[in-house]
């Protein structure tokens, strides 16, 4: 041990596999790697230690009571679970409520949540949390059902239905069902509470150390002065017959005061008026005063029953609103009449009265207790009615959700109490047993039946039977005796409730006779083995033990006074009448209102009020339970009412989808609300989170959670009908919808579902196709739901986008229409402005409104009249509708009542007709028996007369003989001597025979003692073998569970491999898409490079033009300077003539024309330059954007390629590790099989050795047989009658014949086994051959895989080289972009220079205009022409430069095309290698399938081996039985031989002895043949197993 270092020896068979540490706090027990009891316990302990009290157990929930109030139930936590699926939420009680609510909304089917567990395990607290969550999350119309109202409901229920016990400080003592009805929108429309099995007797009688209901203590402490005065509580009684005494501790009084204030506030919240509250307090006060009044023990001196203290009884009568005489007569009088009436239900009145006279007399205290319990029962029913009145609603409801809360298993010995359990505790335990049976039925029986109906073969372990035996002990009904009105006790088995009813009305019936009959039906009187029977005797006569929860919870019951529960006490029935006839109006009004409606079924179930359709349906269902078949006859029986109430509860729950919550008790101590402990300053200590391991293990075994988890893991828990599955998940396969259309008609739903599942690429082991529905493993359907939600969200997003686009287009069209309307309005306004001053228009606008006013006034008057008429009609129709509604409601309620009454009458008539038929058949049977007896009596009478005649004749003959002897007295002496000698001989013979008989008797006694010792030895051996068998069974079960876990783990690995293959295929498709994208990007890059070269050429040309323009500008500047100089010269030459002036003007005009032409050319060139600059800028921006995106995509692709390479390497390593682990596991299994085989051979050798010893002993016995038979023949000669020897010989012959038959059967079995062994040899040879071939193929694939890996490495190197080239190209493009930016800067400088030149040209033009008035010489013009010619030569030079650059660009394009061709070749080689890799993967998958087939064949061979072993065991058992018979026969013969060993002289018996010896030798030979056949069969089996292991 780790904590103290001690060494503990543990049996190897008791060790179970442990899960990895990552599973220590697993949220779902079904997800454990190894599912066994130890791992489940460890997981629960770890979670509980971490304050994680909720755990999933497959579809169920496990809750361990934390014994304190944790902070995990708040509105914030509720909102966390709102709208979540079960798979997405952590285990919590809110998760169960959310799952049930979600199923209710999706399926529109009724749901129910059932809480199971022991008392004190927190069922009521979890029920409150469930209701609060549903009310908070679902909401209600107008917030009618608030959390505050439900808190008030549970406050009232806790006060009136709970009390403190030794196990639980706030235990519930009634069962209740909370019904929440939901409307179409999923909101709470109405609610109600139904209660049953109230412990009403707790008011007056309860176990020692326990208290009565809490409301008495609250009222005695919390009542104010006025209420205390009215209830006469100013002076409380010192003692009470009911044990209701005020509290003495100050902290208890303080708590009761707070709770009473809280109770009054809760009643105000539920709308209970002050008068109604006062009525409740009056009845409670009356019950208290009745206990204080008490009753006389044995009556007074006259024998009357009466109160012990009349002053307290007077107070009780005053509070109840009646007189003391009326109260006394209701309690103590008319008892005999009432009891006679109650017992006459099963028999005639005279028999019942006789039974009454013989039975125990009802005491006065019992009558008083019956009145108190009846009053409290009526009060509790009234409280439930008031609660339902506050919860009911007239809204329409669609479906409902039920929450079932019942008291848990009660066991006084668990709380270390030395008392037996009461009848009320038996009723609560019976209710829990029925709910456990429902859990077993829903979890195991229904699932297995569904698999059988759908032809699904599922290899499951042996599921243990349910708790039907313990339930049958309590409520099993007889098929006939329950319907026959007879007092006779029949031998047909019946349960305890039926026996109580019968013994209550039987003359002299008692609890002892009831128990004797019960044990004769179900139990054994020994009570030694608890596993064999669930009913055992107690230490005392009135005690018995009953094993609940599959024998894990043994409860000892004390039956003293139980028959009083089966007897009707009129005082309890008079309680309702007393309250209805009360003089206090507030009491009588409440109970008279209840009496008018059918709110209670036989006084059993409370809370069936309600006007909604679902409430009426529930009430009808319960009425049907109480009025059908046997219930119609027994519904007035107090004991059978318990069964009927539980039947109604189970029937109501069975109609819905059930969710189970298992509440576990962590340790045995008084548990209660954490608020009470915290209110008194008690801090929760560290011991609160500790667990009682043995108690927790017993609860787990009793609930059969492990079996439920195994069938959940191994089976297919989720299933859907074909059509529903196709309609729901058709959205996941849009290609099928496109192929067939949205509304295509499906002829074969199964084929359509198979096609859909194939398209979803699910692993075949994860689903199974049935006959009408498809079944899924756990978690598969939720995964499909997630995919469906994702696809639905995507489709909705696309639909929203389409809708928004359509709305935007519609809005645009509307804007266009509005624009057209605005233009039209503007046009009309313009027209109006033109005609507004026209006189005729003014006249028209003045007259037109007057005409319309006249017309509208007339129309308004007509419309007002029509409105008045319609209002009158509407009022009339509304009034008629209200009247019809009231009539329809009244008629519907009347119809429901009449239908219920009609159903009751019909069922009663059917039951009466059944009774009549059974009684008629019984009467006919009795008449027939009477006739037969009469015939027998007549025949016996005739025989008796004939016998009397014969006797008379014999007497006469005897008398005549005596007279003859007297006459012949003389001749009679001789005969007398002979007679005396014969008498002496007879006496001697008698003595000798007596001696022989004594000797034989002594020998037989010795033989008997030896046989007894032998039997004791055999019994010890048998017990040892049974223990060994149990251990082997346990080990086999453990190995089977581990094998199932391994299979599930293997299936999980296969599903993960399947997912990896899917991801690999997805990665391949993405990689091909990425390669296509790279190809497209390369083509775009080439296109951009070409455009870049073109732009570079254009830029170069523009640069040349810019240089030319610079030269031209310089030339123009020089020209300007010259012109300025000429202008100065011209200014100095003012004396020249007119002719030269005209010539200069002409030259000037020519120059101006040339200048204009040059300006036009310059403008055109400037426009082209601007366009080229814009195109260059646009292309540069596009280049920059493409360069950035390309660089990002290349980086992302590099990262993805690297990640994919790493993931592929990891997957390969994981697959290799998994293969190695599977190989190791297989070797372990083979090793265990070899060990079992060796054990089997050793056992077989032991059996052979035992057979040889038996042969030796039989040979010794055979030698003594001859003497035995000779002596037997001598004795037969002395005795004339030889019938006994013939009988022995016949017995020996019969035994020999049986042995011959057994031997023949063994020979046949041997032949059949030899044939099967030969078949197995052939199959094993085939399997070995196929296995060798598969291993060779696997090695070949491994070599191919290595080759592919080497090729992939080479391709990777080539790919790296290409990436280097690609990066170099990217760097070159970056350099080119830098050059383009430089050229752009130069272009901007050129544009600036151009603007300066234009400014200078403008200045030159102004100067030219000035020179028009002056004279210009010719040489200036020639100079300008020469400059123009120079510019033309420069332009031609630039054109040659452009051609040279274009040729260089063509060479670059050719180099780029070569690079693209190399890249295409590399990509094609990569594609080929990927295809080869896929082909290899397919081959590997085929090999895996073949390996799976081999595993199946191996399992089949092991199964046949098991069958052969079973046959061998059967033969060995037959052989052992024959040997035992032969040993017994030879033992008897040997004993006789030893007795008469010296008397073997007779020769007449030799033939008989020889014949017997021959028979014995023949038998010995046959026995040897059987042994040889068994040995050869074992040898064949061993060879088969060795061959199998070699394979």
Give the amount of beta strand, in percent.
under 5%
Number of helices: 36
- Please identify the structural class as seen in this structure: mainly alpha
Main sheet record: 7 strands, mixed
Number of strands: 15
Percent helix? over 70%
Mean pLDDT value: 76
Strand line-up in the sheet with most strands:
1-2-12-3-8-6-7
- Spatial gap, N to C terminus: 43 Å
Please mark out the parts with pLDDT under 50 across 5 or more consecutive residues, or reply none. 335-359, 480-488, 525-531, 596-603, 629-633, 672-688, 1280-1285, 1413-1418, 1542-1549, 1577-1591
Shape: flat
Rg to the nearest angstrom? 54 Å
Question: What do you see in this structure?
Answer:
By secondary structure, the protein is mainly alpha-helical. Helix content is 72%, strand content 5%. It has 36 helices and 15 strands. A hairpin with a 3-residue loop joins strand 14 (767-769) and strand 15. Helix 5 packs antiparallel against helix 14. The longest helix is centred in the middle third of the chain and has 160 residues, at 973-1132. The chain is flat and about 220 Å long. The two termini are 43 Å apart. The relative contact order is 0.06.
Q: Can you give me a brief rundown of this structure?
A:
Helices cover 72% and strands 5% of the residues. The protein is built from 36 helices and 15 strands. The strands form four sheets. It has a seven-stranded mixed beta sheet with strand order 1-2-12-3-8-6-7, sandwiched between helices. It has a three-stranded antiparallel beta sheet with strand order 9-10-11.
